[in-house]
Amino acid sequence: MTTDGEFTRRLIGFGLSEKEAQLYLHLLKYGPKTPSLLAKSLQTYREDVHRTLMSLIEKGMVRPSLDSPAVYAAIDLDTALGSALQKQQTELREIEAKKRELQELSQQQRFRPSDEVSTFKSIKSIKGLIAVAMPLIDPMQEEWRIAAPAYLTVVASLFGVNDAAYEFIKRGGKVRAIVDISYQVIEPVREMIAISEEVPHIDQQGIMFVVFERRISISAINAEVKRISLNEPVSGLWTDDPVYAQYLASTF
């Protein structure tokens, strides 16, 4: 039977914040409610509930009534997710069109390659972490090493990382992960094992680095998070310095 926690995690994976997912699920389960009743049920402030409701209305997942005081009702799940998916697909098509335009313009330019120097950039959120990691997985051919805290197994499950890893493994690649395994992340870890990832346990909170093909790496400066959300802040470092990547790989 699906638990509230699992359902909430999947909603977060669809782009909702933790508060939005919890409030939307509450309305689905218990029906339309006023902000005051929602605040009491969710044990939070009315102002906080109001902000979350406005965000869900903008996402097309909640609608207010014409009554006074207004009650707020959840849009049925299929309609709400379909609307959210359509919005994401529209945004993706716009980005792809801009990408093609830039590629066409770049062919008219003479750009000097910059791969003769090693570079770095900072990562400030889980969204930023996913954004820099996903494009690195597609071209990989050999090996991917991961040392990660427990919460990153949930991130990998929710935001498509495991799907990309599965495709990499099907191409003949190898994924080796060391994870701080706890009871709360048993299901995401099982998902990783099911796609043929090696997932031994490490009893050390907070450790995190990822090495792509011994050439590019992402390492954590501060990997502690309070909730699983794309906007949750983290501090990390991406670098294409192969010496550093090989050093991290050797400590695996």
Question: Which terms summarize this structure?
Answer:
252 residues, alpha+beta, Arc Repressor Mutant, subunit A, Endonuclease, Chain A, 2 domains, six-stranded mixed sheet, 10 helices, 8 strands, globular
Question: What's the CATH architecture of the largest domain?
Answer: 2-Layer Sandwich
Strand content: 15-25%
Briefly note the CATH topology name of the largest domain: Endonuclease, Chain A
Q: Which CATH class of the largest domain applies here?
A: Alpha Beta
Order of SSEs: HHHHEEHEHEHHEHEEEH
Q: Note the main sheet.
A: 6 strands, mixed
Would you tell me the overall average pLDDT? 84
For the termini, the CA-CA separation is 37 Å
In short:
This protein is α+β, with helices and mostly antiparallel strands and 252 residues long. The protein has helices at residues 4-13, 18-30, 35-42, 46-58, 77-106, 126-137, 151-158, 161-170, 186-194, 242-250; strands spanning 62-64, 72-74, 120-125, 143-148, 174-179, 209-212, 216-222, 233-239. It contains ten helices and eight strands.
